[in-house]
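Objective 1.3, modelling of assemblies. Example input:
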Amino acid sequence: MKAISVQNISKNYAKVAALKGLSFEVEKGEIFGVIGPDGAGKTTLFRILTTLLLANSGKASLEGLDVVKDYKKIRQMVGYMPGRFSLYQDLTVEENLKIFATVFNTTIQENYHLIKDIYQQIEPFKKRRAGALSGGMKQKLALSCALIHKPNILFLDEPTTGVDPVSRKEFWDMLAKLKEEGITIVVSTPYMDEASLCDRIALMQGGEFLRIDTPENIMNSYKNILLSVKADQMSQLLKDLKAYQGLESCFAFGDSHHISVDKSSYLEEGDDWKIKLLKYLEYKRHRHILIEEISATVEDCFMELSEGS
Amino acid sequence: MKVITANNITKRFGSFTAVDNISFEVEKGEIFGFLGANGAGKTTAMRMLCGLSKPSSGSGTVAGFDISKQSEQVKANIGYMSQKFALYDDLKVWENLKLFAGIYGVPAKEIGPKTDRLLANLGFESERNTLVASLPLGWKQKLSFSAAIFHNPQVVFLDEPTGGVDPVTRRQFWELIYEAADNGITIFVTTHYMDEAEYCNRVSIMVDGRIEALDSPKNLKQQMGAQNMDEVFHQLARKAKRN
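Predicted structure (tokens):
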């Protein structure tokens, strides 16, 4: 049995189609990442799967239970951490955790082993009101509350948005540990660099999945040839590259620019292609020019797929 | 010319020192990246530079005005944009621009022609009468940046302007930033995307209220023997004691 099975789910808000007939499956025990920008439909999808919202059409089931008919049973077995902090701000850390445990007919003690690593970091502040916690601590409390009833499937809606890179890494380390407990984790994020930490990912934009696969397969399926280009004057270099004929795309990418070239025309010309570009950039008076073939990142793939859609 | 100067600025809340004796200067037309972990004190520092809060000690100037004594003049001479608050959803595109321009004291007869030029530049004329609520996020961000610099401020403060924005739009947004900097507007920007740190002329990294590093991305990488800014950030922010 699949952890999650979705067939042709659609959802409209007035005129806007938020989800356009999504179908996919999630295996038990995997970390499944839904990766896409704001407005892609990630939250709508999560709310439908956690029985908080009804789809206009299509079917979805969690471990064989239907999200509409069996919503009560599903609520017992999923944990949901919404994107916006949704705990009781005027209750203490400990009170919040207790409420969530009690609502699900359990106790903090019973499942303490699940949250131990995470909760211990905020336990010194257990008498503090949740509203007075720092962002990082709120996030840990919210995750503890979503876990306290030992869910089979955990939904995390943008848990790392607005979080600095170091804290983001810590959060992903926590998820890796939860996976070892056998919990299926569905997590959404706008950060493309987090994709490699998932078993499989869905790249999402405009209510559709552009691709679903393992991060490796997605990166290997980049259609064009990708080159990184560097020179001393990076902003001028970007302008000159954009004016150069024969590029499929050209984007700034941190300390280099990434350009993509149609595979067949590049292979036909071989090294001549690079030499021609080098000559052009030298003519444009660039210095210390470095052009090299590189393999695509998930972000390169996302841009290639979204340009084409 | 220095557009921002900070001299030993400290901000305490009770016994907690949020910003601990920071000093730096930002030149006209520079793109200055202001990085740090959550809770490092970035927002507190930025609020003081925008004239919204006064330092406990130390002094600073922004756009030539004293941040403690002339906070109203500071506010009038800067632009500000954050991901959380940008534009009014229930106003049309042109209404938002008119509102922001009016608040910042742009003469009424200049607002119309300037709005025309701006919308033409953005390729956005067809959306003049669209409610901002129905624009895609990427467009809202671009428009909101344009509104923040409509009155030609000396410096614009951008607080995580690209959070959650798709990768293509994120890059287009940075092209707007470059263009504004080329036109002499100083850019003070925070971000959690480390590739964006590479686009800044200089970057400061705050840890536990102090500025732990300040230099060009190239020099920072060299000094720390790091491949990219992500590594630089991790090396510095790991030392943080605060959470």
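Chain A has a mean pLDDT of 94.
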